[in-house]
Write the structure tokens for this entry.
Amino acid sequence: MSVVSLLHQKGGTGKSTLAIAAAISYLGAGEKVVLIDADPQGTSGDWGNRFGSAFGLEVVSHIRPNFPALVESLRQDWERIVIDGPPSLSPVTESILAASDRVIVPVRPSLPDLWSIPWFATVVKKLRGSGHPLRPLVVFNMHRGEALEPLNAEISAWNIPAWHESIPADEAFPRLFEGVPLPQRLAEMIGRLIADEP
Ligand SMILES: Nc1ncnc2c1ncn2[C@@H]1O[C@H](COP(=O)(O)OP(=O)(O)OP(=O)(O)O)[C@@H](O)[C@H]1O
Ligand SMILES: [Mg+2]
């Protein structure tokens, strides 16, 4: 069983969108997957109420900062847990990181979106220092052709890897919230994103 979380301090960077797309992708690969909505805004929970059964995806809400215990209690029943995080640096966020094997950090291609990376890097370093093999990956989302070099330089200074592809701005992503599956090209891209080797 493995846990993949989508986390970033900033709002609106694509955590919920990519968490839903990732969970659908795991499902398509035949895994038993549950999506946990850890954001009090309830975006994925609301999505689950509307479209979860149509996609065959179980979505549960959980916002208390005890994710390691929650994951332990789900270990028997699921092969994969995807966690959609809140836009905050909080005890909930730290608890999600402590319970995760991988954390995907969606950022828009702009410097202000990267200004919380030092906080992530510090928590990741602390967890890894205590023997937790957490693997972080920053992912540029809503890419409209902006130059990524200065942004990649900022990220690599903090020793956090960035995904070699970037996710384009594409109207197919908002349509997930209308219950429309991603087109094959984007679904395959999400499949590459969540493939176990970054
Ligand atoms: N690659 C993309 N192209 C176009 N629109 C996108 C893309 N990724 C996300 N969006 C849209 O951007 C908006 C914000 O995305 P989303 O709700 O996933 O962000 P979030 O990080 O979960 O936000 P919050 O911090 O408020 O929870 C949504 O309307 C979503 O459909
Ligand atoms: Mg969200």
About this structure: Helices lie at 15-28, 43-55, 67-74, 91-99, 117-129, 149-156, 172-175, 184-194. The chain has one domain: 2-193. Residues 11-17, 39, 41, 43, 87, 141-142, 167, 169-170, 173-174, 177 surround adenosine-5'-triphosphate (ligand 1) (CB under 6 Å).
